[in-house]
Amino acid sequence: MPTATARTLEINGLRLGYGETVIIPDLSLAVPTGKVTALIGPNGCGKSTLLRGIARLLKPANGTISVDGRPVSSYGGKEFARMVGLLPQIPVTPEGITVADLVARGRYPYQGLFLGANRDDDAAVARALEATNTLELADRQVTELSGGQRQRVWIALALAQETDVLLLDEPTTYLDLAHQVELLDLLATINEERGTTMVMVLHELNLAARIAHHLVAMKDGRIAASGSAEQVLTSAHLEEIFGLQAEVADPLADGSIVVVPRARATARAMSELATDAGV
């Protein structure tokens, strides 16, 4: 796979929402280049809205989103699509389309108005299918596949697009734990081999800690904490951001940390003990 170009992605003073409803009032963020950044936070905090803003699906009311120092609005459609790709939470699969044909749609930013696929396009599709272990599925209809297979096909489409920045909105939705781990391991491999900058929304905190180099925790449309998993996933932050009483276990052998929610009875007992002790 071709190596991704190291592009900067910066957000400054962003105000974003839907109509009169403001979801993100004022947000600034410099996304680490060539790394995996995970957006975490409670439902409705603005994670998916932020991705949609970066992908130019929502127009900011104020502030800027820039790639390589240029506002994203200044790029032409295909030029931007060669740099930034988005895998939405629930992609719409065209009826009757095969895996190979769907993945080939990732090549549209490189094709002219009246020109079909060329050798470069065919090679890119083949590389994407091979990298995602979907080559044997190429002639099958996407709607016939399991959830895990389907997600890998959509990842293949994003790979065929050969963007330098990849945005993923809850890529593990509807997958069981084994397939979640498998998919995130695939994305981690792509990041390591291509250097693709990735920004993904994840709800499972332990998986976010496992894959991401950088975590951004959001609450009420603002950044509540950012940094490494060790810096963000503290007991204090988990209670403040999620309202979750939890312990953070010591790092595992691979260096990842584990969030362990307290049982209700345990949390209640600890609270009562603290009250009795006058804490």
TrEMBL record:
Question: What stretch or stretches form a coiled coil here?
Answer: none
- The record's principal subcellular location, in a coarse class, is membrane
Superkingdom to which the source organism belongs = Bacteria
- ABC transporter domain segment(s): 9-245
> Per UniProt, what is the membrane topology?
Peripheral membrane protein
Instruction: Cite a single GO BP annotation.
Output: iron ion transport
Instruction: Identify the stretch annotated as signal peptide in this record.
Output: none
Q: Name one GO molecular function term.
A: ATP binding
Q: InterPro entries given for it?
A: AAA+_ATPase, ABC_transporter-like_ATP-bd, ABC_transporter-like_CS, P-loop_NTPase, Siderophore_ABC-ATPase
Query: Which cellular component, as a GO term, is one annotated location?
Result: plasma membrane
What UniProt keywords are attached to this protein's entry?
A: ATP-binding, Cell membrane, Ion transport, Iron, Iron transport, Membrane, Nucleotide-binding, Transport
Compartment(s) where it occurs, according to its Swiss-Prot or TrEMBL record: Cell membrane
Name the CDD domains for this protein: ABC_Iron-Siderophores_B12_Hemin (cd03214)
Q: Which Pfam families match?
A: ABC_tran (PF00005)
- Protein name according to UniProt: Iron dicitrate ABC transporter ATP-binding protein
Provenance organism: Rothia nasimurium
